[in-house]
Design brief:
alpha/beta, Rossmann fold, two-stranded antiparallel ribbon
Length: about 300
């Protein structure tokens, strides 16, 4: 993703990736919860498992390229593949795609290399399990990247701009995303009335404290703001899962202490320059395994 070690371009790349909807999660309501026990089971050679989601689900570069289009950067070692290998459904379909938003569930997604059909096309009446990891890109942080990168470690340009006048723009966008996720869950239930649904939250990316500037060139004030604000995204995912008869896989708690600011041998989410197979600021193979473990506890 990033090939240079410094400069303004690197700052923008780092913050853009950070702001795609992945943050440190501290929630009162978001601990894992199993989906209702309804209909036929999935696993042991029975059932149909469909995985929906964005790049934290498709997991670019953590394994070999899987499926089409190539632009989805879908790995055969992502958490849906790991879950499938453990529970062994009769059929497994992974249509996750890097860059996906909730609109990508019902509409086509243009990638840098091919078009991904609407992800909901894979969900049918025979589906017995659906996992969905979505919402981060809907908040639309990437367009604000230039405002968050800073050469001053104590500054908070992003927070200052986004909360000017007493209106928190990110909170408003998260509220909109919450409604979209609710609508998505209803659509999944309608297409697959027998399926158990698990909403998969985002893992820990940002650490406690003020961050690790300049390795992560985000000012202390913005690290705190983004950590708390992006935690709200996981909160609303958990809330909508509960309200719409779905389970919620909390992947933040088990990945805490393995964020981008930790040492390479303990890091489960890669930093600016990945030291293991993954793309910048995304889970590596260990991170995907942790996410898989969180899901498996709910569906095994």
């Amino acid at each position: 993703m990033a090939k240079k070690s410094g400069g303004g371009c690197m700052l923008v790349i780092v913050v853009a990736a950070c702001l795609l909807g992945f943050g440190y999660y501290r929630s009162q309501s978001g601990s894992s919860a199993a989906p209702p026990e309804e209909g036929p089971g999935t696993g042991g050679g029975s059932g149909r498992y469909v995985a929906l989601g964005d790049s934290y689900t498709s997991a670019p570069n953590t394994g070999e390229q899987s499926g089409t289009p190539a632009g989805c950067d879908r790995s055969n070692n992502n958490y849906p593949s790991l879950v499938s290998a453990t529970i062994k459904p009769a059929e497994f379909v992974d249509v996750s795609c890097s860059g996906a938003v909730t609109a990508s569930m019902s509409g086509q997604q243009q990638t840098h290399n091919g078009t991904n059909p609407p992800q909901l096309n894979a969900v049918n009446a025979d589906t017995t399990l659906v996992t969905v990891g979505i919402g981060g890109n809907d908040v639309g942080f990437i367009g604000l990247a230039k405002d968050c990168a800073t050469a001053r470690p104590s500054s908070s340009p992003c927070r200052d701009k986004l909360t000017a006048g007493g209106n928190d723009q990110l909170a408003e966008r998260i509220a909109t995303t919450s409604t979209r996720v609710a609508e998505l869950l209803d659509k999944i239930h309608a297409k697959a009335p027998k399926a158990r649904i698990v909403v998969v939250g985002y893992p820990t990316v940002l650490p406690d404290g003020n961050g690790c500037w300049p390795s992560l060139p985000v000012g202390a004030g913005d690290v705190i703001y983004l950590r708390e604000t992006l935690g709200k995204l996981n909160d609303v995912l958990a809330e909508q899962a509960k309200a719409h008869k779905a389970g919620f896989a909390d992947t933040a708690a088990p990945t805490k202490g393995h964020d981008v600011c930790t040492a390479s041998d303990t890091r489960w989410v890669e930093g600016i320059v990945p030291t293991s197979k993954a793309i910048a600021l995304h889970p590596n193979a260990k991170g995907e395994q942790a996410m898989a473990d969180a899901v498996e506890k709910l569906v095994s």
